[in-house]
Amino acid sequence: ETGVTQTPRHLVMGMTNKKSLKCEQHLGHNAMYWYKQSAKKPLELMFVYSLEERVENNSVPSRFSPECPNSSHLFLHLHTLQPEDSALYLCASSQHPSGDRGRNEQFFGPGTRLTVL
Amino acid sequence: AQTVTQSQPEMSVQEAETVTLSCTYDTSESDYYLFWYKQPPSRQMILVIRQEAYKQQNATENRFSVNFQKAAKSFSLKISDSQLGDAAMYFCAYRDNDMRFGAGTRLTVKP
């Protein structure tokens, strides 16, 4: 276990549903991330929160809406998704670097396997 | 934008043998970090090894070592004495402010 948990582990939803993915980290980190992992493609960084503020949004469609209520929790709200959104969604956390940028590794959750019908 | 390329979608190694996974990256930065992550089937991604770009010495963690060639922008992972538990997807990653991952290499270990 890496100290990052995600629920649910599996989710099947229709295109008209609204659902949320949850991530929780128990490592005292202050940066959290959402990634999309599709087969045979690099991990796609979707959102970055640092000190509870969104610092990166990589041109993600508005049907994905992140929320970071505190430094330990991160949500990804989903609505009117498309079948091509089916993927493994990974949450990660790290200590936001101060000065020595990039040094700190990211700790990943187990992911939520999302299937959109 | 920085890109990370893993040219081997799949690799196979015999148990107890050595295998090398390739990774190249593109950047104009001089100060950055490189990582190899392991993602076993249905399990969490974990860090295998990390290399600071300003260090010339190659990082080593037990049976895992890297060959870091900064000028060539190459960062390969060598796994010695391969074990069945090494079977997984391996991702190379680059980070300065942003984190970028390669597409991964699926390693199979044959008994």
What is the rounded Rg of chain A? 14 Å
**What portion of residues of chain B is helical?**
under 10%
Strand content of chain B: over 45%
**Number of E strands of chain B:** 12
Which range best describes the helical content of chain A: under 10%, 10-25%, 25-40%, 40-55%, 55-70% or over 70%? under 10%
Mean pLDDT score of chain A: 89
Tell me the number of helical segments of chain A per DSSP (H or I, 4 or more residues long). 0
Which pair of chains has the greatest number of interface residues, and how are they split between the two chains? A-B, 21 and 25 residues
Description:
The complex is a heterodimer of chains A (117) and B (111). Chain A is built from no helices and 11 strands. With 117 residues, chain A is an all-beta fold. The radius of gyration of chain A is 14 Å and the shape is globular. Chain A starts with a strand and ends with a strand. The mean pLDDT of chain A is 89. With 111 residues, chain B is an all-beta fold. Helices cover 0% and strands 53% of the residues of chain B. In chain B, strands 2, 5, 6, 10, 11 and 12 form a 6-stranded mixed β-sheet that branches. A 4-stranded antiparallel β-sheet of chain B has the order 3-9-8-7, with no helix packed on it. Chain B has a two-stranded antiparallel sheet with strand order 1-4. In chain B, a hairpin with a 6-residue loop joins β5 (33-39) and β6.
